[in-house]
Design a protein that fits this description.
198 residues, Arc Repressor Mutant, subunit A, five-stranded parallel beta sheet
Length: 198
């Protein structure tokens, strides 16, 4: 059983997370913005923080910065958001996060990631996709880089002198190899995790 801090401005999400985490056997405290989250961290000890990025008053990235630089806390942080920019996810990785869970999520995914973080079996973010990275061909890495720049399948096809059908199939394979549900998640994970060859 762990003490988990949920920081999210969406009351419905907070209710879902509180109910789910309580069912998993954890004690849950909720904060509705980054400033309130920091206050809670100063008042008590937590084993995990579930942190949304887009919030009023103080956003999740600003809170994470303060947790690492001001509080000097190494508490594990799991980013849970539907609206993260790719830049913000990359910046969060630099500050040290345990992982990323896009909304909407399945409760089984939430339970598995929380368990891994608390058990200490969650690999460092930089190594999460090492096996997937090895499975990406050079062409797929090239296409993923273009996806990160916001190009559509048709635009990728034009740039690489391949058919839109071929580009679309490459994108589908990339999504499958990275274990993602959609294109946006694959792009986000490519920033958060170490997907590319050194």
């Amino acid at each position: 059983m762990a003490h988990v801090l949920v920081v999210d401005d969406d009351n419905n999400i907070c209710d879902v997370l509180r109910d789910a985490l309580s069912t998993f056997g954890h004690f849950v405290t909720v904060a509705h913005d980054g400033r309130e989250g920091l206050q809670k961290l100063m008042e008590d000890v937590y084993q995990l923080v579930l942190l949304d990025l887009r919030m009023p008053v103080m956003n999740g990235f600003e809170m994470l910065q303060s947790v690492r630089s001001t509080l000097r806390s190494e508490v594990p942080v799991l980013i849970i958001t539907a609206y993260a920019s790719l830049d913000s996810l990359f910046q969060c990785t630099e500050l040290g996060i345990s992982g990323y869970l896009p909304k909407p999520f399945h409760l089984e995914e939430l339970e598995a990631k929380v368990k891994q973080v608390l058990d200490g079996t969650m690999p460092p973010v930089s190594s999460l996709n090492r096996a997937a990275r090895r499975r990406l061909t050079g062409r797929e890495q090239e296409i993923l880089l273009l996806m990160r720049q916001g190009f559509t399948d048709a635009e990728i096809a034009k740039r690489l002198f391949i058919s839109p059908y071929t580009a679309h199939n490459h994108v589908k394979r990339i999504i499958n190899k990275l274990g993602c549900r959609n294109r946006a998640e694959a792009v986000a994970i490519s920033f958060v995790e170490d997907v590319f060859q050194a």
